[in-house]
Amino acid sequence: MLAWRWFPHAALFSLALVLRVCWVLWVERTGFPFTDALFYHGHGESISRGDGFEALGVEGPSARWPPAYSVVLGGLYWLFGVDPLVGELFNALTGAVTVVLLMLLVERTLDRRTAIVAGTILTVMPGPILWTDVLVTETLFTAVFVGFFLVLAFARPTWGWMAAIGAVMGLGALVRGEALTWGLLPIVLFWRDFSRVDLLKRISVVAAAAVVVMSPWTIRNAIVMDAFVPVATNASQTLWSGHNDAATGGQVYPPPEYFDRFGPEAPEWELESVAALRNDAFEFMIENPVRELELIPLKIIHLNRGDSYALDWVNNDPDVPPISAINVERIGVIADAAYFALLTLTLLGVVTLGRPFWRQPIGRLVATSFLTALFLYGFLYYGNYRYRLPYEPFMIVVASSVLVGVWSRRPGADPAAGS
Q: Phi-psi region for residue 244, left (φ > 0), alpha (ψ -120 to 50) or beta?
C-alpha cells in the first residue's frame, strides 16, 4: 500500500524528467541572442567568478533583474563549470519537481484521482517542457508558485505558519517581483476565520517575514546602487511597454535614441532610465484613458497566445537555429493545440464547476490568482505568453476537475471511486 501510495508521483516525476532532459539535450544552441537569457547567463557567470551582479555592456553594479535565478545559475556554474546546459538541466529537474508539487497540492485540496490527472497533464504539457531549454525564470518561478500554494494548503492560522508563508513569498519575489501580489492569497484564505484586526496582525507577520527574506538583496542595492530598489529595476520597462504611444498590448521597446540622454556609467544609467520610463508610462496612463481601455483586450490576447511562441526563444540562435523549420511547425501545432485545449477546459470550469468548487479554499486561491494575473498583464504591464506559464498549473487544476467530473458522470460510474 505504501508503494502504491507514491507510485503515481514517482512515475510521473520520472516521465516528466525524461521528457524535459531529452528536450534539453536535443536542442543544441551555439550562443545567446540579446535576450533575458543572455543577461541571466551573464550574471550567473559573473557570480560564479565572485564578481557579483555586474551590468552587461558597462562597468558597474546592476539590479536589473531579481537575483534568485542568477544566484542559482552562479552556484551551478561554480560547481559544474560555465555551461548553459547545466542551467537547462536544472530547469528540467525543477519542472519535474513541479509535477509532484502540483499532485500533492491537488491531493491535499481535492482528491487523489484529480491529482493524478493534473500531474499527468503537467507532465506532458508542451509549453512547460519547451521553456526548460531557455535560461529564464519561468520554470523556477512556476515551481515556487505551486510550492507557495502547497504551503497555503497545509497552513494553519498560527504565527509560525504565517512566517512560513511570508518566507516563501519573499523567496518568490526574489525570483520575480510579481510574487509580492501573493500577499492577497493568505487574506483570501483566512479572512473568514478572524476579525479584521486579528487578520491584519497575521498578514503583518507574513509581510515581515517576506521583508526579512528580501532584505539582504535590498540592503545590497542600497549600498552599491545608492538607491532604494526592493527587488529589481526591470519593472519600469515592463510598465512602459504597456503604456506608451506605440503600445500594442504586447512587448514593445523604446527607440534606441531614448537612452541617449542618460549617463554612460552604471548604476546611474540604469537608475535614470528606469525613472524616466516609469514617469513616461504614468503620464501616458493619465493623458490617454480611452487608449488605456482599448489596450486591455489586446493585452489579454497577447497573454493567451499559444505555447508555440516559446519556440521563438528556444530557436533564437545567433548563428544557426537548432530546430528545423518543419519541426518548429510540427511542435508548434501540438503546443498550441494543447494550450488552447487547456484554456477551453479552464473557461468551461469557470462556468460549470459552480459554487461548491469556487467557494472552497483551492477554488478561492485559484480564482484570486487568475484575477491578479488579469490585472497585472491585462492592465498594469502588458500581455506576454511568458508571463502566463506560472499560471498553467492552476489552469490544470480547473481542467482536471472538469475532466474528473465528466468521467464521474458517465453511465455506471462510481462517483466516489479513486477519491
A: beta
Look-up: residue for cell 476565520? 193
pLDDT (tens digit per residue) in 70-109: 999 999 999 999 999 999 999 999 999 999 999 999 999 9
91 vs 128: CA distance, rounded Å: 10
Q: Which single residue is written with the C-alpha cell 502504491?
A: 4
The pLDDT of residue 416? 55
C-alpha torsion 386→19→84→387, nearest 10: 10
pTM over 0.90: yes
Query: Residue 415 contacts by C-beta under 8 Å, 6 or more apart in sequence?
Result: 408, 409
Backbone torsions φ then ψ of 315, nearest 5 degrees: -95, 10
